[in-house]
Amino acid sequence: MGMEEGIKDNAASAPNSRPTNQLKALLPMRVLQVFLLFFVLVLGISVISMHMIKYLKIQTLAPSTLISTYDERITLESLIKPPLNGWHSMNDSELLWRASMEPRILDYPFKRVPKMAFMFLTKGPLPFAPLWERFFKGHEGFYSIYVHTLPNYRSDFPSSSVFYRRQIPSQHVAWGEMSMCDAERRLLANALLDISNEWFVLLSEACIPLRGFNFVYRYVSRSRYSFMGSVDEDGPYGRGRYSYAMGPEVSLNEWRKGSQWFEINRALAVDIVEDMVYYNKFKEFCRPPCYVDEHYFPTMLSIGYPDFLANRTLTWTDWSRGGAHPATFGKADITEKFIKKLSRGKACFYNDQPSQVCYLFARKFAPSALKPLLKLAPKVLGF
User: Fold this and answer.
1) CA-based Rg of the chain, rounded to a whole angstrom?
2) How far, in whole angstroms, is CA 163 from its chain's centroid?
3) Which domains does the chain have, with CATH numbers?
4) Is residue 133 within 8 Å of residue 118, measured between CB atoms?
5) Mind listing the pLDDT tens digit for each residue in 322-334?
6) What is residue 124's DSSP assignment?
């Protein structure tokens, strides 16, 4: 009996224990499901939060470039592409700083065609623009043009002109003062923004070419020297303008004089725009009757790069009449004989060899000289 009751009791309790075991087995599954659900929820919130933070950050820094930021790519072409026109929003400090950036590896990783930068320093109009148009015609890709005028002047060249949109931001210029050299440095700095510019020629509105473009390009590109006049001149107009306050950076024996109109290579152009040592000395201690545009560049370059200079200019000028300004030639002066005489002046040296070709440009010419020059250009000037 007792045994039977015990068996019955066990039999009765067995059905009650099965649900309890099933519940214990289901509990871990429930916990795992809740945990997975929670994990997925947290992960989703995290992903959404990261995208929101990135979105808000982009909106704060550059709202207008939200979409283009992801698509923008820095390419070599974007770094070396020259400005489309001469105008920009940089001030002088920003411009000189940007222009002083120069690659230190001399082997270019792209096909570079060296160009000549023609820099016109003028008060306003370019009366000989039609003559220069003929000079440049057919030589696209081998030159670039920069025009520095008075700040309030705006040119009106047609879009077909080589001078169209080549005017650069400018400042007022006073004759014989440092503002003249500031304008020249400004022209050099703008031209240096084009990595393909290798040679830099400074001209005025009263300058004309004496040779065709091909001749000028070959003459300059094949020269081992830059054409900057730099002479040690005695007398009141040379050493007489020196101030001992220029020392110790510039001594009397290092003082030089040269023509304002020059042609220099890229390395010397960079040296000029980044200079602050000689600049401050000349600005403070070379004032009229010391004319800084005749002394600053010739002196600093002859100190730093004496073996790089031809010590002569490529621009013919007539000082024989005396006075503070050179002679000006008008319509009545323009003859075939006169123009030929200018291009073949007195003997000079080219690449250390005697040469009869000493000048490629000439000044000063009055606007009335334009028509006879255009008439003589095909026969005498070669374009």
Assistant:
1) 37
2) 17
3) 80-101+109-312 (3.90.550)
4) no
5) 777 899 999 999 9
6) S
